[in-house]
Amino acid sequence: MSKVVFDISMSLDGFMTGANRRPEEPLGDGGERLHEWAFGEDPRDRAVLTDGVASIGAVIAGRRTYDDSVPWWGADGPTGPARVPVFVLSHDVPEGTPAGGVYTFVTGGIEAALEQARAAAGEKGVTVMGGAETGQQFLRAGLVDELSIHLVPVLFGSGTRMFD
Predict the structure, then answer these.
(1) pTM of the shown model
(2) Residues 118, 85 contacting (CB under 8 angstroms)
(3) Quick check: 19 and 86 in contact, CB under 8 A?
(4) Are 10 and 159 in contact (CB under 8 A)?
């Protein structure tokens, strides 16, 4: 059975977003700093990202993460050209999803999303990504095998906390 990893970037003071989240700044004030490591030039960071994507057979994301990120992800999803299937937890299926996209909207809860993601992943891992609420649901239900926290050297002071 595939391993389930909750993979996040988090500030030193435990925040997954900065304060003042809004449509034009979905990660809040300064929140993009949390992902600079993944898109920078450091070969060690690039290796972490490349190796991580290679081990993923499916991704689970919350609807807010999807809504905030799809303008950048496009039809290929967060893994880009690898086009790994993404199962989006949602209360409904949105209109206007990217044509030919990798997205499946799951309205039956986290267990249903995990079942579908495991079936798609085969022997590869399932990554639960982005969104404190989604991660907290999976952790409370005991459905996470491993936490992968990319601790970013920034202090936000407020925002969306992952842990109390």
Answers:
(1) 0.92
(2) no
(3) no
(4) no
